[in-house]
Design brief:
The chain is an alpha/beta fold and 768 residues long. Among the domains are: 10-94 and 209-264, TIM Barrel, CATH 3.20.20; 101-206, Maltooligosyl trehalose synthase, domain 2 (2-Layer Sandwich); 304-435, no CATH class; 493-588, Maltooligosyl trehalose synthase, domain 4 (Arc Repressor Mutant, subunit A). It is built from 27 helices and 27 strands. An eight-stranded parallel sheet has the order 16-15-14-5-2-1-18-17. Strands 19-21-22-27-24-25 form a six-stranded antiparallel sheet. A hairpin with a 2-residue loop joins strand 9 (153-156) and strand 10 (159-162). The longest helix is centred in the last third of the chain and has 31 residues, at 575-605. One of its GO terms (biological process) is alpha-glucan catabolic process. It holds the Pfam family Alpha-amylase. InterPro entries: GH (IPR017853), GH13_cat_dom (IPR006047), Maltooligo_trehalose_synth_4 (IPR013797), Trehalose_TreY (IPR012767).
Length: 768
């Protein structure tokens, strides 16, 4: 871990057309008042026109003009500096946007000039396989009949392509056949492609940033900002897609030695971040640990049994993910699989392909890195051999090449295994395995039902030692459900019997042909309720297509989707169903609020650099993107923060203001008194309800949260449970109450809110 300055907290903004750099600059005062120290921005370089996310960069030389261009960036920096804030920017080294070739000068030149292009080495293209295949044609045999030559370009409906010099005579079909590229059926993108993609997205072409020249060209603008002092931190998108992540990060660290550097590395349960020259991850590991604290592990057997009753079968997470990963490798990523199989020409491709696919399906993490990678490869080989003993000989041969660091297969296979994990698990299995969807989150482990306090404390203490500047988060633009939805769903783990009765009744009265997906949908509805009808319709359709069980993106099933949308409509239009759904959501919402405040305090106060995703300082019920990129009403948040600063202490249910109180007071204390957050020590509660408290001392600041609030209430509350603290006088920064003595009664400490943040009274007075 490098010794670099780092933010004390960040606030993520989805800068986009419609909320540009000037709109973002207008938030500087609010963010400073909130207590954050750095704005954390979505990618800012020029993206595909109209892009709402910025991860499809088309020109690395300039700020996106749709965001305000270079002038907008400079105005943002000035506004941030005037408010005492820094800037962290997201960058995208793995891929570039190619959906609109004319918008990407480098890609356009490659299409026009082929291997002779000065940019031919920018993109990870397999030139030896012939023309560059572009999967844009309709799935009809006569699609090429719609080609036209217009203004010296080849046109296919809205798509524009360049024409190589001296090749523009003849019919459009004849012109097409002379180009360095070939337009093909869009379905061939998954089975036969000549360039590496981001996952299975043919509109995002892989970059070769391992080439020093490509690195310099694609990073010059970002590094110019850093050298000028305009940039304090860098978030690296999807390093697992790179050929050599360790080498890339070493080069980036050398080019920006003073920057806070975090990577979007998704770690599996128990996996450690490689010893890279970075400050940590973007926080999915912390998300899983903090959120898991509020799930009751004792409910696992009940939910497993319920899943079996609802679906009529027993679903093994291990078998499900193996099958979804294998399908991803052999279908969605078949083109990448074929490219890898060709690297073992001495063996028949019909044997190498299934062996590589099986190894990828059995690989226990996204990808292996030395030296741990050898252990992961051995585990994959053993499991692949168990599942496919008929492939023993070829598995041994392929594994031997994967162990050879000088073999091209060893360099490229990790790029496949990471994509297989992402598409097979995150984007498929998470939508199929509906046992308890609060756990189906990026970086999570649905097979591990909850996190015990002792496990959390071990995780946090280790993090303080090794990665104290790693990011923590609860929501991102990639999370499947917002943090407050997951917090409310965690309440179901405290009443598994009641939930089983409710959902079984609803599913019997409003059946769906896919009962597993129906269970996922009912859980999501309860977690997000009340939610606008059109948002739930959009979520249901996307989630069902991602699951690829009863419908899919490639082959939508109109009959099933009609049935699915009819079910969503019944939630709103059937008076009895609507009333019961509303009543049940209302019943679990107060405990959900308790969980929301608890996990938020834990995330903000635990070791690391806490990030707050835009809007989540209030109650927030976002679902998967694009739902979680919806506009945020910052005027409401400004007004509520001003009322809090005027002395208002809201009830927990008051428009999310209690969450804003927790966020602002915790961030301000971290900003103003950082010396109180330099260690980590569990603080056990003593007494009959001790298991319902999670508390830790960060070196002067003590965070206290309530877990499993329904069970606590059923047991009669805190009783005489106490919390031992050090120091003569402490103040709860949320209520302003001062406590003296070495033991505090929990029922007194948490009488106003289910959380408390204690700090030495003199430090609170000094900060105020």
């Amino acid at each position: 871990m490098p010794d670099t300055p780092h933010p004390r907290s960040t606030y993520r903004i989805q800068v986009r057309p419609g909320f540009d750099l000037d709109a973002t600059a207008g938030l500087a005062g609010y963010l400073a008042d909130l207590g954050v120290t750095h704005l954390y921005s979505a990618p800012l370089l020029t993206a595909t026109p109209g892009s709402q996310h910025g991860y499809d960069v088309v020109d690395h030389r300039a700020v996106n003009p749709e965001l305000g261009g270079e002038g907008g960036r400079q105005r943002l920096v000035r506004a941030l500096r005037a408010a005492g804030l820094g800037l962290v920017v997201d960058i995208v080294p793995n891929h570039a946007g190619v959906a609109r070739p004319a918008a990407n000068p480098a890609w356009w030149d490659v299409l026009r000039r082929g291997r002779a292009s000065a940019y031919a080495d920018w993109f990870d293209i397999d030139w030896d396989r012939g023309r560059l295949l572009l999967p844009v044609l309709a799935d009809t045999p006569d699609a090429l009949d719609d080609l036209k030559v217009v203004d010296g370009e080849l046109r296919y409906h809205e798509h524009r392509f360049p024409i190589a010099d001296g090749t523009g005579d003849g019919t459009p079909r004849e012109v097409h056949d002379r180009q360095h590229y070939e337009l093909v059926n869009w379905r061939r993108g998954d089975t036969e492609l000549t360039y590496r993609r981001f996952f299975a997205v043919s509109d995002l072409a892989g970059l070769r940033v391992e080439d020093p020249e490509v690195f310099r060209a694609t990073h010059a603008e970002i590094l110019r900002w850093a050298a000028a002092g305009d940039l304090d931190g860098i978030r690296v998108d999807h390093p697992d897609g790179l050929r050599d992540p360790a080498g890339y990060l070493a080069r980036l660290r050398a080019a920006a030695p003073g920057a806070w550097l975090v990577v979007e590395k998704i770690l599996e349960y128990g996996e450690e971040l490689p010893d890279w020259p970075v400050d940590g991850t973007t926080g999915y590991d912390a998300l899983a640990a903090a959120g898991g604290l509020f799930v009751d592990p004792d409910a696992e057997a009940d939910f497993t049994a319920l899943d079996g009753r609802l679906t009529g079968r027993h679903t093994s997470w291990e078998d499900l993910t193996h099958d979804t990963k294998l399908a991803a490798a052999t279908r969605l990523l078949a083109a990448e699989l074929s490219r890898l199989a060709a690297l073992v020409p001495e063996l028949p491709a019909e044997q190498v392909r299934p062996a590589l696919a099986e190894l990828a399906a059995c690989f226990p993490v996204y990808r292996g890195y030395p030296p741990e990678g050898a252990r992961h490869l051995a585990a994959a080989r053993a499991e692949a051999g168990r599942r496919r003993p008929d492939l023993t000989t070829v598995l041994d041969a392929v594994t031997a090449r994967l162990r050879d660091p000088d073999h091209e297969l060893a360099a490229r296979f990790p790029q496949l295994s990471g994509a297989v994990m992402a598409k097979g698990v995150e984007d498929t299995a998470y939508y199929r395995w509906s046992r308890f969807v609060a756990l189906n989150e990026v970086g999570g482990s649905p097979a591990h039902f909850g996190v015990a306090p002792a496990e959390f404390h071990r995780f946090a203490a280790a993090r303080q030692v090794r990665w104290p500047a790693s990011m923590t988060t609860l929501s991102t633009h990639d999370t499947k459900r917002g943090e407050d939805i997951r917090a409310r769903l965690a309440v179901l783990s405290e009443l598994p019997g009641r939930w089983a009765e409710r959902v079984a009744d609803w599913m019997s009265r409003a059946p769906l042909a896919d009962p597993a997906f129906a269970h996922l949908l009912w859980q999501t509805a309860v977690g997000a309720w009340p939610i606008e009808r059109e948002r739930l319709h959009a979520y249901a359709e996307k989630a069902a297509r991602e699951a690829s069980a009863s419908t899919s993106w490639a082959d939508p099933d109109p009959a099933f989707e009609h049935e699915l949308h009819a079910l969503v409509d019944r939630m709103y239009d059937d008076p009895e169903l609507h009333a019961q759904l509303t009543a049940f959501a209302d019943e679990i919402t107060p405990a959900g609020w308790s969980n929301s405040l608890g996990q938020k305090l834990v995330q903000l106060a635990m070791p690391g650099v806490p990030d707050t995703y835009q809007g989540t300082e209030l109650w927030e019920n976002s679902l998967v993107d694009p739902d979680n990129r919806r506009p945020v009403d910052f005027a409401v948040r400004r007004d509520l923060l001003a009322r809090l600063d005027a002395g208002w202490r809201p009830a927990v249910a008051a428009d999310g203001a209690a969450k804003l109180l927790v966020v602002s007071r915790t961030l301000r204390l971290r900003r103003d008194r950082p010396e109180l957050f330099t260690g980590y020590r569990p603080v056990p509660a003593q007494g009959p309800a001790g298991a319902h408290a999670v508390a830790f001392d960060r070196g002067g600041a003590v965070a206290v949260a309530t877990r499993l609030p329904l069970r606590l209430a059923r047991a009669g509350g805190w009783g005489d449970t106490t919390l031992a603290i050090s120091g003569n006088s402490v103040t709860d920064v949320f209520t302003g109450r001062v406590y003296s003595g070495s033991e505090l009664l929990m029922h007194d400490l948490l009488s106003t809110y289910p959380v408390a943040l204690l700090a030495p009274t003199d430090s609170v007075e000094a900060a105020a």
